[in-house]
Design a protein that fits this description.
seven-stranded mixed β-sheet, 17 helices
């Protein structure tokens, strides 16, 4: 059974209590968003997620999208839900007020995204991709394009996509073949084929605005010759309403493992009229503005599915009776005890819980940096926020989606045979979560980005934005009477991260394959240390609240319990990651290709 109730109490904790000392908060531009206002938005978002989107999740998965006469039809109820979502202003939540947005903090927006992803991941892609597209247009398009497209996209009347992948090339965009031909004015004709385009065609909005990577006739080879173009499905008329069709057609929709209610399309562009976004041959810069926004959001997708899977597993573990507790009967009136009494079931539930709470805490930290990057008036704060975001974006994308997928698999395991069959609904979480580890750059690509670009950038400056607060926290709290052992565990994991950084830097300079071999383990190590840091902070705050005599005893007690589990059972992965990194590439690269 798919069970979901928005974890509002934990969301309010990470927003209002956990990160108050991170140096990114107290932004004057966001002063009007008081805790009461923020909480009210969260509570309304929870109602939308639980009452409107969750009931469509399984039915949408069963029905899926279908292609009829060149038009993609979304599952029953999706159009009505989208209209309600748009009319409620949810599409415009974090967008700039200049274009009709509400300008809410990203720290709040990302928690709202989590709720939408938990309740209906397929639905989340339609407004989510549009928000990413508006980010690129706002940052790089001409004023004329902004005025023509942003208001309707921010409103949600029009939607957006990103069109990168082609049949013959995926991540290696330097190989793309889509062409753009100048028309003598400020427009271009775009021709080519794109695949795996999420929300590339659907019936939810009156127009779809595609951001398309293509080559100009005189473009240099490789990624240095790629430009970005805005290509609408319908060319707007002078009054701003959709006009004639623009040569964008759907060749097929993909039959996927999961996300069946999200239309993933093969698109053809046949002399489609488009306009340049950014400078010629500099399209990757503009597209990466969108992609980096989407990578953080994809991490939130992993967290969202992980939370829904965890809650569904908890419900089942309390309902399902089987066997007796090893410490004595807990349900004397029944033939067996609920399976939640068994240690191994608790292991699975606590693992998912800890990954969710750790991801939420780290995600909130990064989101506060996103707000500081945009709104801080102190140049030092803005610069530190930019460094932190650059470092943590691949970690959020890869670690959160890895953990979300693991949590979904654990939910199936808790259900046993009932999890493997479709009727329970939890196998959908596994299928839906799997793509998040692949799109927007596979998790292996994120790890390579971390060790190849982010780690050495500016002589390690990005790393200092993370290392310094963690080191300061350890020094200030390792003598704590209650949590000294926990802080000691964090210190050891942090030491492993520092040693791993040095090892990769030393070996990688001589042999790039050494850095590549270490990348995935290094990303997980850094992410685990980040989670450990936030859990240790959370435990100290919870202890202080309990000592003050809070009425919310259960929440803070559980927070400390979850933190202890993380340090006892999950943070030891840091040692394994360090040992793997230290071993080098030798055994990984030993076999000749023909031996596989």
């Amino acid at each position: 059974m798919q069970v979901y109730e928005a974890p509002l109490r934990d969301m309010k904790f990470v927003l209002h209590e956990l990160h108050n000392d991170d140096g990114f908060g107290n932004l004057e531009a966001l002063a009007e968003f008081t805790p009461d206002l923020v909480d009210a938005v969260l509570e309304e978002a929870a109602k939308v997620a639980q009452e409107v989107l969750l009931p469509l999740n399984r039915s949408g998965d069963i029905e899926g999208c279908r292609l009829e006469n060149g038009v993609v039809r979304t599952p029953k109820g999706f159009k009505e839900a989208y209209d309600m979502f748009r009319e409620g202003g949810w599409c415009a939540l974090a967008s700039d007020p200049e274009w009709g947005g509400q300008g809410l903090p990203e720290a709040l927006n990302k928690l709202t995204e989590e709720m939408i992803c938990s309740s209906n991941l397929s639905f989340s892609l339609y407004p989510g991709l549009t928000h990413g597209a508006t980010t690129a247009i706002e940052g790089y398009a001409s004023d004329e394009l902004k005025q023509a497209y942003l208001p309707k996209m921010v409103e949600g009347t029009w939607s957006g996509t990103m069109c990168l992948t082609e049949p013959h090339c995926g991540t290696d965009l330097g190989m793309l073949r889509t062409r753009a031909f100048p028309q003598g004015d400020d427009s271009y004709k775009i021709s080519g084929a794109k695949i795996f385009i999420s929300a590339g065609e659907h019936d939810l909005t009156e127009n779809i605005i595609h951001l398309v990577l293509a080559r100009l006739p005189d473009a240099p080879e490789g990624v240095k010759g790629i430009s970005l173009f805005l290509v609408p499905k319908y060319v707007p008329k002078e009054d701003g309403t959709p006009g004639p069709s623009n040569g964008v057609s759907v060749a097929a929709i993909e039959h996927k493992m999961g996300l069946k209610a999200s239309a993933t399309c093969q698109l053809n562009f046949d002399d489609s009229i488009g306009w340049l976004v950014g400078k010629p041959n500099k399209g990757m810069e503009a597209m990466f503005k969108m992609m980096n926004t989407e990578r953080v959001s994809v991490g939130i997708q992993g967290l969202g599915v992980g939370e829904a899977a965890y809650q569904s597993a908890v419900w089942y573990a309390k309902e399902r009776v089987q066997g007796r507790s090893l410490s004595g009967v807990k349900n004397p009136g029944g033939a067996a005890d609920p399976i939640i009494v068994h240690p191994d079931v608790r292991r699975m539930l606590m693992t998912a819980r800890a990954y969710n709470e750790g991801s939420r805490a780290v995600g909130a930290w990064v989101s506060r940096a996103l707000d500081a990057e945009k709104h801080a008036t102190d140049p030092a704060v803005k610069a530190r926020a930019e460094d932190f975001i650059a470092l943590m974006t691949p970690v959020v994308k890869a670690l959160f989606t890895d953990c979300g997928y693991e949590s979904a698999n654990l939910a199936v395991q808790v259900y046993g045979g009932h999890g493997y069959i479709a009727e329970s609904g939890v196998e959908q979480f596994v299928r839906d979560a799997r793509i998040a580890m692949i799109y927007e750059g596979t998790n292996g690509i994120q790890a390579l980005d971390l060790v190849g670009r982010k780690m050495p950038a500016h002589a390690g400056r990005y790393l200092r934005s993370f290392f310094h607060p963690v080191s300061d926290f350890i020094e200030a709290n390792k003598a704590d009477e209650t949590f000294g052992k926990m802080i000691e565990g964090l210190e050891k994991a942090f030491g492993a991260l520092q040693l791993s950084t040095g090892t990769i830097a030393q070996k990688g300079m001589k042999d790039p394959e050494e850095a590549g071999a270490a990348a995935t383990d290094y990303l997980r190590l850094l992410g685990l240390v980040a989670m450990g840091y936030t859990f240790a902070k959370a435990a100290l705050i919870a202890k202080a609240r309990l000592d003050e005599g809070t009425e919310d005893t259960a929440f803070y007690t559980a927070k400390i319990g979850t933190a202890r589990f993380f340090f006892d059972r999950l943070l030891p992965q840091a040692t394994a990651a360090f040992l793997a990194i230290k071993s080098g590439k030798a055994s990984m690269m030993a076999l000749d290709v023909d031996m596989f």
